[in-house]
Amino acid sequence: MPRVDQTLAGLTVRGRCLLAAGIAAVVCAAALHEVNLLRIGLFALALPLISYAMVSRTRYRLTCTRRLDPVRVNAGSAARVLLRLQNVSRLPTGLMLAEDTVPYMLGGRPRFVLDRVLPQRSVDVDYTVRSQLRGRYRLGPLTVRLTDPFGVCELTRSFSASDLLVVTPQVVTLPEVRLGGDWAGAGESRARSVATAGEDDAATREYRQGDDLRRIHWRSTARRGELMVRREEQPWQSRAALLLDCRGTAHHGDGPLSSLEWAISAAASIGLHLARAGFAMRVVGDAGDEVASAAVGSESFDGLLLDDLAVRTASTGTSIRAGITSIRRGGGEEMLVAVVGPLNSEDAQTLARAAHGGPSVGVAVVLDTATWTALAPRAMTAAQEAHRHTCEVLAAAGWRVVPARAGESLTDLWPAAGAGATAAAGRDSALLKVGATR
User: Fold this and answer.
1) Cα–Cα–Cα angle for 206, 209, 210, nearest 5°?
2) 301, 271, 286, 234: which is closest to 410 by C-alpha?
3) Which pLDDT belongs to residue 202?
4) For residue 338, which phi and psi values (nearest 5 degrees)?
5) Residue 404, strand partner residues
6) In 88-199, beta strands by DSSP E
7) What's the rounded Cα separation, in Å, for the pair 142 and 62?
8) Can you list the domains of the chain with their CATH numbers?
9) Dihedral, CA atoms, 379, 385, 389, 390, nearest 10 degrees?
């Protein structure tokens, strides 16, 4: 027999009202010696109790499968969730109310009324979710509420399975731009011999995610105390390193319209654009952590990059020197792309020198983060001065500078990464000077 508290928890408002009315009728019948009133009271008492016993003893065997289409979706875009509920028992189900667990950022919880599912049959339902915020969101588990025909009893059964939906930064399509030097597209297939001597003299570098474990050079690993891989007979290929500045002190604005969201979206768009153009990519954060890394043609790079950027938040650091140091470990043979906010003089000079010795100039997307919010006049002037100084230092060092402000699209700005970018940065800096003098 179920406990009294369990029975009461399983009764609806109608069932509890019937139970209370039945008790009251029985008490009044005993006091007034009314047999008919006693019969009514016993009926009102028995109906919810018998309904609860029938529903609680129901042995439905149900299975639930969930499919997401797609499993990764850009922020602001809709994803479709398809649910299949199958009755694997020998009895048909009664009336059921199905409710899927959905985080509030994706909208309200979807509910479905399932009238009857025959044995060995299934029923399909679907709904859409949408989020303006990046992140990983767990959908499920599905709960099913079983009810009786009178609506006086309701019991809940839950499934254990759940699925993960990844809401990625917005990725925009970038136009094809010749970036200069040998880094014009998909790279070449010429082989270059990095080491011509034996194994002991093989040129090595630090192990990076995605490297073939068979290329580990154990002598160098033992000597250095960290994994080292051989570099001999590598195919000559276009390589690029992308630096993403997520410092909380450099960015302004709130939510999806903040400068941090713009920078993360830009990093995702540039990273995918260059990877699909044939570049072996590395993406590094301002704190020196490697966001994603993959060789040319790696199908996992897109997923690694988007999965990391989907949950990336503002960092607590005040300098990007750790990120620049991590980029330099690539050996100076990569094209450098930086998505940064205003830098102090020391960081700007350090970043400017990072491209020296490489085969191509760097490309810097410099955000004027002050335009993403309303600052006090003094703070606005200081932020604009830092942005102007950053652009000038990088342009003077030969970087292709792409200034960016709130409301501008990276698709429209990206052509400035090609020929004429430095001149564009100079004109932009001149405009800033004129605005400051006014």
Assistant:
1) 115
2) 271
3) 54
4) -125, 135
5) 367
6) 96-100, 111-114, 121-130, 135-139, 142-147, 154-158, 163-168, 191-192
7) 11
8) 4-56 (no CATH), 62-168 (2.60.40.10), 191-235 (no CATH), 237-437 (3.40.50.410)
9) 40
Q: What is the pLDDT of residues 307-317, one digit of tens each?
A: 999 999 999 99
Task: Give the pLDDT score at 413.
Answer: 94
Structure tokens at 119: 């044995």
What is the pLDDT averaged over residues 205-211?
73
pLDDT grade for 327, boundaries at 50, 70 and 90: confident
Q: Which helix (H) or strand (E) holds 52?
A: helix 35-56
pLDDT at 291: 82
Q: Does residue 158 contact residue 143 with C-beta atoms inside 8 Å? A: yes
User: How far is 313 from 339, CA to CA, in rounded Å?
Assistant: 15
3-state secondary structure of 253: coil
| Average pLDDT rounded to a whole number, residues 398-420 | 89
H or E element at residue 113: strand 111-114
Token pair, residue 160, equals 């254990």
| Amino acid at the residue 126 | D
Q: What angle do CA 188, 190, 193 make, to 5 degrees?
A: 135
| Residue in 100, 6, 102 with CA at minimum distance from that of residue 52 | 6
**What CA–CA distance (Å, rounded) separates 381 from 404?**
17
Strands (E), 197-322: 204-206, 228-230, 234-235, 239-244, 280-285, 290-294
Q: Is 333 helix (H, G, I), strand (E, B) or coil?
A: coil
